[in-house]
Amino acid sequence: MTGLTACAATSEPQPDFAEGQAPDLGGAQFELVPELSDEFDGDGLNFSKWIWLDENWSGRPPAIFDANQVTVKDGQLWLTADRIDEPFELHGRTWTHRGALVGSRLPADVGMYTEARMMVNATFMSSTFWLMAYPTETPEGIRSVELDVVECVGVDSRENPDDPWWTKEWDQHYWLSVRNQGPLPKQGLSQAQIPTDGPITGRWRTFACWWKTETEIWFYIDGERVAILHPEEGLPFNIPMRLRMVVETYDHNPPPAKGEPGSMYHPDGTKLSFEDRSTRYDYVRTWRIAE
C-alpha cells in the first residue's frame, strides 16, 4: 500500500493470539506496519504517525476534544475524560466535558490485522479503538465506512427499560461493529455484543481485528476470536480507513445527574483520579501479510 513500509524481522512483535487461535495464512506470515504501530515509549505523541485534533470532528456534545487531554507517559498513551467547571458555547453547541482523540495519519487496508492493549476508563465516557473513513466517492456512490474493534463505557447512565437493546449495559459488554454505509443515506450495520467476563475497568485487555477480506472481519479479545462480522451485502468493504483511539460521549449514555451538593462523589466519574479517568493504551500494532 502506498506510503506504508513493513518490518518482517523475527524480532518484531507478532499478534497476541491465544493458543490455537491464530488464523491459517497458508504458510505466510504477518509483518509489522510501523506507520500504524506505536509502543508509546517516547515523551510525547509521535506526530509523524498520529494526529490529536481532527478539523472535521470537534467531538460529540457535550464533550469536546481537547489536545490537552492527550498524554504520553510511562510507556503508554493516556486519553483522559474530564468535566468543564464553566461550560461554554462553541459551534452552536454547549460543551460540559472534555474528551480526546488520537488518529493515524495513514490508513489501514484490507488484509491488515490491528491490535491495541488498553485499559478502560471508569467514567461515563467511552473507551474505544476503531477505524473509519469519511464519506468517499466510490463507483457505488458516496459511501462511509467504520470498523469498531471495541467500544464501551465505565459507567452506564441509562435506566429506562424501554430504551433500545443496543443502548444498554455498555459497562458490562464490549461492542464490536462494521458500518458499511452507502450510497448515502443507505445504512448497513453488523454488530456484536461481547460480555466483559469480569470488571470492565482496572485491567489490561487486548482488542484486535483482522480485516480478512472485503466481506469478512474477525474480532479478537485477549487473543481469542470472539466474533466474525460480515458487512452490508453487495457493497465491498474496501475503503482504506484510519485508526482512531477516542474518549467521547454518546447520545445514548448522557452525563448522569450530579451527586449531593458538596460531595466529592460525582456519578459521571469525573471526580476520580487521573488514572481512573484515563483510557490507557500500552501499544497499538498493525500487521499485514508478507508477500
From TrEMBL:
Belongs to which family?
Belongs to the glycosyl hydrolase 16 family.
Instruction: Show the InterPro entries listed in the entry.
Output: Beta-glucanase-like, ConA-like_dom_sf
Name of the protein this chain belongs to? GH16 domain-containing protein
Domain GH16, by residue range, is 15-291
Q: Where is this region: Disordered?
A: 1-24
Biological-process GO terms, alphabetical: carbohydrate metabolic process
Q: Which PROSITE patterns match?
A: GH16_2 (PS51762)
Q: What is the lineage of its organism?
A: Bacteria, Pseudomonadati, Planctomycetota, Phycisphaerae, Phycisphaerales
Tell me, what is one Gene Ontology molecular-function annotation carried by this entry? hydrolase activity, hydrolyzing O-glycosyl compounds
The superkingdom of the source organism is Bacteria
